[in-house]
Each structure stands twice: as C-alpha cells, then as structure tokens.
Write a structure and sequence with these properties.
The complex is a heterodimer of chains A (328) and B (115). Chain A has helices at 19-32, 43-48, 82-94, 106-118, 145-165, 181-190, 206-218, 235-246, 266-284, 304-309, 316-325; strands at residues 6-11, 36-40, 52-55, 99-104, 124-129, 169-174, 194-196, 224-229, 250-254, 290-295, 298-303. Chain A is α/β, with parallel strands linked by helices. Chain A has 2 domains: 6-144 and 264-309, Rossmann fold (3-Layer(aba) Sandwich); 148-260, Rossmann fold (3-Layer(aba) Sandwich). Chain A is elongated, with a radius of gyration of 22 Å. Chain A starts with 5 loop residues before the first strand and ends with a helix. Chain B is of the alpha+beta class and 115 residues long. Chain B has one domain (11-110). Chain B contains 3 helices and 4 strands. The longest helix of chain B has 18 residues, at 35-52. Chain B is globular, with a radius of gyration of 15 Å. Chain B starts with 10 loop residues before the first strand and ends in a 5-residue tail after the last helix. Classes of the chains: A alpha/beta (328), B alpha+beta (115). The A-B interface holds A 178, 196, 198-202, 204-207, 209-210, 218, 228, 231-232, 234, 236-238, 240-241, 243-245, 247, 313-314 and B 1-9, 11-13, 16-18, 20-21, 23-25, 27-28, 55, 57, 74-75.
Chain lengths: 328, 115
C-alpha cells in the first residue's frame, strides 16, 4: 500500500461555522505526518479553475474561532458533468494529489464519490460532514449545527421580548433545508408554542395552529411563538392568514443566513478539529472513499456510498417532548 | 413519516375576510390569478362580511376538490345573526357557482404542485 504524500482540501456548498477548525485539523495533522496539503479555493469551481494555495502551518493560524471558510465555497454545476469531472481529475493529477478532503453536505459527497469513481480509483476522497442542517443520515453530528441552533435560539429569545410587549403572534422561520432539526431544537429550547417541521406535518396543520392560537389568546397568553422550518416556508403568508383569521397581530421573521455565520461554539470547534484530524488518519490507514461520522459517542468513518444511502426517521422523542411541554 | 412539505393537509384556507379587523387574506399562490378575478373575489367576500359581519373563511377541500365556505364569529359578538348569515352564505354560493368552480379547479392543480 503506497503511502499518501499530498492531499487537497476544499469546502463546498453552503458554509458552516466550524469549517475553519476542520481545515486547520486537516492541515496540521497532515503536515505533522509528512503529508503536503494544498487548498482549493471556492469549492469544486476553484478545483476546475485550478485556483489553489499551498497550505502550511501558518496558513491555518488564528482561524479556529472564525466562522465561514478561509477557502471560500461555491456551488458548481459544471463539476457534476462528465467533462467537469475529467477536468478536475487532470488538475488533481497535475498537482500529484493522492486524495481530496471535501467538507460539505450530501451534494458535496456525491460529487466527490463520482470523482473517485470516474478516476477509477486513482483519486481517493474523504468527506467531512459540514452543514448546519444536520441532514446527513449516517452521522449524529454535522459541523455547524451547534452554532446554528444557538444563534437561532438567541434570535428567538430576542423576538419573544418584543412579541410579548406587543402581545402578538410571531412566526420565526429557521433554516434546515428539508430537515426539521434546527426548528425542533430551537422550538424546544425557547419554549415556543408551536413547531412546524417537514417531517411531521400533522402537528403543523394550519387549522390546528389557528385553533391553538385562539385558545391561548382566550386564556390570556400575551404572546405566541411559532417556529417554522425552512422546508415548510411561506412564513409571511402564514402570518397574514393567522392575523386575518384570529384578529391577533402576527408578524413573521426569517432568521436567514444569520444562522450560518458567527464564531463557532466550543462544540463545533472541538468536533470539527477532531473530524479534520480523523480524515487524515483515515487516509494514512489506506482507506478509500470514506465519510467521517459521529455515532454513538464515537468519531469513526463509513463508506461514502453506504453513508449516503442511509435514511433516518425524525426522532419521535422530539415531537413527544414538544407536545408534552405544550401549555394546555 | 409524512413527507408533505406544506403547512396544511386536506383543508386549506385560501381566502379570509374578517369584518372585525377589516382585513382580507388571499393565499399567495392565488396571486397569479388574473387581476379581474382577484378583484371580483375580494368584492364578493368583503361585501358579504361588511353586510353580515363575522369572519368568512373559504377553504379548499383537497380531498373532494371543491370550495367550502364557513362563517365564524368572535365569542363576544352577541349581535351576530347566525341563521341569517348562513342563509346569505348559501345565496352567495348559488350566485357564484361558476366562479367558485373555476377557483376550485385552479387550486386543485396549483396547491398540489401540478403547475
């Protein structure tokens, strides 16, 4: 088994706080083991354009506490075409890259896997799950999720103050793409009266919500907070409908990209650093096409294809807890 | 696991006219209807609630693909004449059969993501 001598690293898709800590983990760990690193800028687009920078220990100094990604990121349609894949392989070969470490979500890993397969095994890939949405089934943690839920929670706490002062109903839309994890965590941590997520529509039926808003208002409740997942959306329209139906002033706030930014929490910095180092460890062990995961309290790795094919149902205890905590 | 990505199931409120707060709501997916149709709908429903009072809710029945019209009142509205309101509601439905059928047809396709 030939030892790896040089790797590339890139960040792709949506950015996530903690990506920099992971990049630092990859670079420092690789260099400590005699493996050179180059960083491709702007994700797969930068790879195709051969936009890169040599990474040394100083390149990743003072970044562990920074949100975003020092390698920038993008979404590249060209990369997912055959011609794009072949172009990427040429670039990697030109730099004598043995393996590519990719940070991103499932789209990033599908692209990376395709690249490995197109190269007929000449290019090895490793994926580090970095997405605030926590929507990669094979891992219980993704870089950026912890920061995102803390940001959302703080945002809702602030909105609660003004919502109470105006005795209004507030709908707060949080990110998560088609997953309801950010909404669920935010809703429970802030004591929201309602949580609407794509995975559990029955509880989020607008007719039932309106009934609950009316009942709460009759009981003298001074505010009503609804956490709405991005996968449902239509928050402004929902607010208008609730206000027209109930007569209660209703406003919608979309937290948006606030949730992607900011300094990463301690958990994101630590876990991201570990995952960065783990990715290099996996490559040094000679493993091919792996995805770093966190499962049952342990950091490990799985085959990318197997990892991407897994499905996980939304944990019922979240729904049960939210229902139990409802003020009846 | 229910994968439906909307916030309502089979009964979808699409239009609301509230006489107490003088507000009118049209589901944003109906905004692409021709201006004349939207104006007609607003005229019909707002005029109704101005005359009768209460809150008129137009629901799209996503099971049977038709419109259901309901009239509600606030609990403290003791002057609300429920019998008269429902009588006038039936009259409204009869006078606008074609219009409501067209809206229901539109909703069948639009709200189910078929257009």
């Amino acid at each position: 088994m030939e030892r790896i001598r040089k790797i590339g690293v890139l960040t792709s898709g949506g950015d996530a706080p903690g990506m920099n800590a992971a990049i630092r983990g990859v670079v420092r760990c690789a260099l400590n083991n005699g493996v050179d690193v180059i960083g491709f800028q702007r994700g797969f687009s930068g790879l195709l354009d051969d936009e890169y920078r040599e990474m040394d220990k100083r390149s990743v100094s003072d970044i562990v506490d920074r949100g975003g990604t020092i390698l920038f990121t993008s979404r590249s349609k060209e990369f997912y075409e055959k011609s794009g894949q072949l172009k990427a392989i040429e670039v990697l070969k030109k730099h004598n890259i043995d393996a590519l470490v990719t940070l991103g979500g499932d789209g990033t890993f599908r692209g990376a896997l395709e690249l490995a397969e197109t190269s007929k095994g000449e290019i090895n890939v490793v994926g580090i799950p970095a997405t605030i949405d926590l929507d990669i089934a094979c891992t219980e943690y993704t870089i950026g999720f912890d920061t995102a839920i803390n940001t959302a929670m703080e945002g809702v706490d602030r909105i609660r103050d003004t919502s109470t002062s105006h005795e209004r109903c507030s709908i707060v839309e949080v990110m998560g793409r088609n997953a309801g994890y950010i909404a669920a965590y935010t809703g429970i941590s802030t004591g929201a009266e309602d949580i609407i997520i794509p995975e559990y529509n029955e509880y989020g039926d607008i007719n039932k919500i309106i009934t609950r808003v009316r009942i709460a208002n009759k009981k003298g409740k001074k505010h009503y907070i609804i956490i709405n997942a991005e996968g449902i959306g239509q928050s402004y329209d929902m607010a208008k409908m609730i206000e027209t139906m109930t007569g209660i002033e209703t406003r919608a706030t979309i937290l948006g990209h606030l949730q992607r930014g900011g300094t990463p929490t301690c958990k994101d910095r630590v876990y991201a650093s570990i995952m960065g180092c783990k990715s290099v460890e996996v490559l040094l062990e000679g493993k091919k096409n792996r995805l770093i995961v966190y499962k049952d309290g342990e950091f490990s790795d799985v085959d990318i294809k197997d990892g991407l094919s897994q499905k996980k149902p939304f944990p019922q205890y979240f729904i049960k807890t939210a229902v139990e905590l409802e003020s009846k | 696991m229910n994968q439906q990505k909307t916030y309502h199931n089979e009964s979808i409120p699409i239009i609301v006219s509230n006489s107490y707060i003088k507000k009118y709501y049209l589901d944003n997916r109906l905004e692409i209807l021709p201006k004349e149709i939207k104006n007609k709908l607003k005229e019909v429903f707002v005029t109704f609630t101005e005359n009768v009072g209460g809150i008129l809710v137009v629901i799209f029945d996503n099971k049977n693909y038709n419109l259901l019209l309901n009239i509600e009142k606030n609990d403290d509205d003791i002057g609300f004449d429920e019998i008269n309101a429902n009588y006038k509601l039936s009259k409204l439905e009869n006078e606008n059969i074609e219009l409501f059928e067209q809206i229901a047809k539109f909703c069948k396709f639009k709200l189910n993501g078929l257009v």
